[in-house]
Amino acid sequence: MEKAAIEATDERKLSGSSDLERMASPRGCINYADDVEQLPRRRTSKDERKRSADKAAKHEEAKKLKAKPGAIDFGGLDNHTANPDELFNRFDTDRTLRLRSAQVADLIKTVGRNMPTAPPSRWFRKTIRYLYGGFGSILFVAAILVFVAWKPLGEPDPAVANLALAIVLVIVWLAQAFFSFYQDFSSSRVMDSISGMLPDECIVLRDGTQQRIDGRDVVPGDMLRITLGNKLPADVRFVEVSSDARFDRSILTGETLPLLGSVDSADDNYLETACIGMAGTHCVIAKLTSAPKQGRTPLQKEIYYFIAIIVTLMLTFIVVVCAVWAGWLRQEHPDWIPVADLIVDCVSVAVAFISEGLPIAVTASLTITANIMRQNKVLCKSLNTVETLGAVNVICSDKTGTLTRNIMAVTEVLVGKEPIAAKQAADIHDEHMGLQKLADCAAVCNDAEFDASTANAAVADRKVNGDATDSAILRFAEAMKPVTEFRASFKSLIKVAFNSKNKFAINVAQKTSEVKPWLIIKGAPDILLPRCGSYITKDGHVERLEESDRQALEMQKDFWSSQDPEVVRTLRGAGIRVFMVTGDFKLTAAAIAAECGIITQSPQHTHGIANLTFDDDYLKSAGVVYDPKVSTDDIPATQSIVLSGGDLEGLDDNQWDKLCKYDEIVFARTTPEHKLRIVKELQKRDLTIGMTGDGVNDAPSLKAADVGIAMGGGSDVALEAADMVLLDSFAAIVEAVRYGRVVYDNLKKTICYLLPAGSFSQFWPVITNKLEADVLLRPPRNARKDRLVDWKLILHAYGVIGVIESVSSFAMAYWYAQRHSLYFSDLWFLPMAFGAGILLNSFSFFAILNVPPVSTPQFAHPFFLSFIYLVIAHFSQK
């Protein structure tokens, strides 16, 4: 269902026009640039020459405006009003061969690659965030206060120790800012390399053949073939469009209704005309995915919650210190702690609570995990996505291209009442009129085309540009006749593109040697068969279609991955339910789900919509109030249910509550709106949703899910909407879940260690700790209830680890002092400080081993006794 269009204003010229456009149906385009006077033109009439002169004057004015960065004069653009023939001549684009390779090479040298202007770096804002974000502002204020305590409050005899402390605080403040910058820089490089691995290609027609190229290599004058879900690499002018092409221009014009695509200009205003497809507008499906997710990510919420707790505790203890000083020490011991020392003490309390290493620990942990996942063919577009995946407890998976490989082949056809294997059809089609008619229809009503780069390969090995179904049908037809030559004898009159709602495609084509046009329709059997009244026999005769008959029904197999059953079992063992959400026929979806292990019940024991219905009037008359949270409905833990998209439209909240109790669910015949509703209904019931998919229809639900997961070979729209990309196969999701949980565990351990220790240097063993043995055997955490830092962790950090470190350090320090004839009574109210650095450092390492949750007991660690022996050996020598 491809056509052509002339690609319009080069993205290099209009890089400020906003985001992306997706077409609502396939067609093509021709690319144009502003410097059109450089390109050869045909001879024109006197009127045409006058009009061209006027337009040339407008272009000169436009050039003057463009002397100002970012200035664009849309009034100087005329490619939307020129007729297609004029555009072909303007860009020296051949109607048949399109652009030639030599032309493309010259244009790339002249105008450069099709790349937009890089966005501003905003380094000033980032620098402010590095310096004053998180605990940075507290460290900065603390350093200023200590400087004030040194001078002027410390006059006439300022303490050098206060100056040293202030300098140390400044160094720590700058160091944490530097590490935040370095980690941000490193993670951005990782994200850039990940973005570079995602496909961003388009199909162009050059030298008379279709070629798949990088979107950055598109040049003015290129002919593009645009299909559903493709990203427009630049503004385009349409020269042929589908009858059902629709465009949402609300982002530019304010129109709420989608506009029909058109070949002819309907408005002199460049932004209003329907014959231009701009890289800054959106189609209906893409618009659903354009809005950013609202609110903070779960990890950001947890970090802010943690900071709020620590700041509250810090301020509370500072108030207590000031109250004790003002109410007791100042009265009873007026010369012991002056104001300057009080400020230093308050700063010490504040610094003791601050986890300076937290920003580094969080970013480093996420970056390390993202790199590990990348090695496992899992690309995270955002670092925060890594942690969110660990909380997922439901995965809604698309079928085609996700659970299955989206590699289809025709295995059997039914012509009349005769089933024929696909391999046999190629041998007998010369004597079989019905097969010949089927091959003719398969060739003409088909949007797939063979790639010219594999023209000499066998049919099964040739690369095909098109969706999986059309590709399978194209190979089937090619085995019986040369499709390209046969198509050349037809001229398409009317086309209706296949879409997820109608589930059929129509092509009305005129054969050059015949008077009557052909009307060919293909689509889902449950949609078309009720409308069929006759069928073709082996001899080519038309017979009446009875209820038990079928007309040329092709049997296609979509190959599913052999790893899928094991993947589903592993995810179930990790407490994650796997649901299938697909647009396929109900029986097809149920069969694939059974093969993949998503459904374990036999068909006769699988529930349907009838199991969700109950009589509200009867319940009310019986005095029963239905509460899904306390309902005793007998739904076994392994019970399966299969529903269609139509079934979902009539469900109320109580039925959704009942549905969410099932462990095995298949949603069939779903539209993008159905998929979006499924995600939102599950989220309303406190479930954390991971959505996988690869098609345009999956994009809205990918965007709405807590974690959208796209397949690497998916459509551009799906890849942009997703938070994570699986480059290899669906099996990679197991590793993604594993490391999503690991990063949460390691962050919890890091924070538990940093709270009492507060060291920059020693959290690395924690954030890179070995995987927990039961990481995929325990249920996922509840992202809405389980906290990264809760009161249990606070008590463990301060009440257990902190007390152990403090009491042990003081005890050993006093014991060490007593051995040198400095007794405890002599130290009471002594304005001096003693420390045993190696002791506290050793107990800090002990704290690393003591942080929860660790599957292995602390005393079973091989390094534990080594640290104990180190401490004993040190003090035994004194």
TrEMBL record:
<dbReference type="GO" id="GO:0006883">
    <property type="term" value="P:intracellular sodium ion homeostasis"/>
</dbReference>
<dbReference type="InterPro" id="IPR004014">
    <property type="entry name" value="ATPase_P-typ_cation-transptr_N"/>
</dbReference>
<dbReference type="Pfam" id="PF13246">
    <property type="entry name" value="Cation_ATPase"/>
</dbReference>
<feature type="compositionally biased region" description="Basic and acidic residues">
    <location>
        <begin position="1"/>
        <end position="24"/>
    </location>
</feature>
<protein>
    <submittedName>
        <fullName>Calcium ATPase</fullName>
    </submittedName>
</protein>
<feature type="transmembrane region" description="Helical">
    <location>
        <begin position="828"/>
        <end position="852"/>
    </location>
</feature>
<dbReference type="Pfam" id="PF00122">
    <property type="entry name" value="E1-E2_ATPase"/>
</dbReference>
<dbReference type="InterPro" id="IPR059000">
    <property type="entry name" value="ATPase_P-type_domA"/>
</dbReference>
<feature type="transmembrane region" description="Helical">
    <location>
        <begin position="793"/>
        <end position="816"/>
    </location>
</feature>
<keyword id="KW-1278">Translocase</keyword>
<dbReference type="GO" id="GO:0030007">
    <property type="term" value="P:intracellular potassium ion homeostasis"/>
</dbReference>
<feature type="domain" description="Cation-transporting P-type ATPase N-terminal">
    <location>
        <begin position="78"/>
        <end position="151"/>
    </location>
</feature>
<feature type="compositionally biased region" description="Basic and acidic residues">
    <location>
        <begin position="45"/>
        <end position="64"/>
    </location>
</feature>
<keyword id="KW-0812">Transmembrane</keyword>
<dbReference type="GO" id="GO:0005524">
    <property type="term" value="F:ATP binding"/>
</dbReference>
<dbReference type="GO" id="GO:1902600">
    <property type="term" value="P:proton transmembrane transport"/>
</dbReference>
<feature type="region of interest" description="Disordered">
    <location>
        <begin position="1"/>
        <end position="64"/>
    </location>
</feature>
<keyword id="KW-0472">Membrane</keyword>
<feature type="transmembrane region" description="Helical">
    <location>
        <begin position="162"/>
        <end position="182"/>
    </location>
</feature>
<keyword id="KW-0067">ATP-binding</keyword>
<dbReference type="InterPro" id="IPR036412">
    <property type="entry name" value="HAD-like_sf"/>
</dbReference>
<keyword id="KW-0547">Nucleotide-binding</keyword>
<dbReference type="Pfam" id="PF00690">
    <property type="entry name" value="Cation_ATPase_N"/>
</dbReference>
<dbReference type="GO" id="GO:1990573">
    <property type="term" value="P:potassium ion import across plasma membrane"/>
</dbReference>
<dbReference type="GO" id="GO:0005391">
    <property type="term" value="F:P-type sodium:potassium-exchanging transporter activity"/>
</dbReference>
<feature type="transmembrane region" description="Helical">
    <location>
        <begin position="130"/>
        <end position="150"/>
    </location>
</feature>
<keyword id="KW-1003">Cell membrane</keyword>
<feature type="transmembrane region" description="Helical">
    <location>
        <begin position="859"/>
        <end position="876"/>
    </location>
</feature>
<dbReference type="GO" id="GO:0005886">
    <property type="term" value="C:plasma membrane"/>
</dbReference>
<dbReference type="InterPro" id="IPR001757">
    <property type="entry name" value="P_typ_ATPase"/>
</dbReference>
<keyword id="KW-1133">Transmembrane helix</keyword>
<dbReference type="InterPro" id="IPR023214">
    <property type="entry name" value="HAD_sf"/>
</dbReference>
<dbReference type="InterPro" id="IPR050510">
    <property type="entry name" value="Cation_transp_ATPase_P-type"/>
</dbReference>
<dbReference type="GO" id="GO:0016887">
    <property type="term" value="F:ATP hydrolysis activity"/>
</dbReference>
<dbReference type="InterPro" id="IPR008250">
    <property type="entry name" value="ATPase_P-typ_transduc_dom_A_sf"/>
</dbReference>
<dbReference type="InterPro" id="IPR023299">
    <property type="entry name" value="ATPase_P-typ_cyto_dom_N"/>
</dbReference>
<feature type="transmembrane region" description="Helical">
    <location>
        <begin position="303"/>
        <end position="328"/>
    </location>
</feature>
<dbReference type="GO" id="GO:0036376">
    <property type="term" value="P:sodium ion export across plasma membrane"/>
</dbReference>
<dbReference type="InterPro" id="IPR018303">
    <property type="entry name" value="ATPase_P-typ_P_site"/>
</dbReference>
<dbReference type="InterPro" id="IPR023298">
    <property type="entry name" value="ATPase_P-typ_TM_dom_sf"/>
</dbReference>
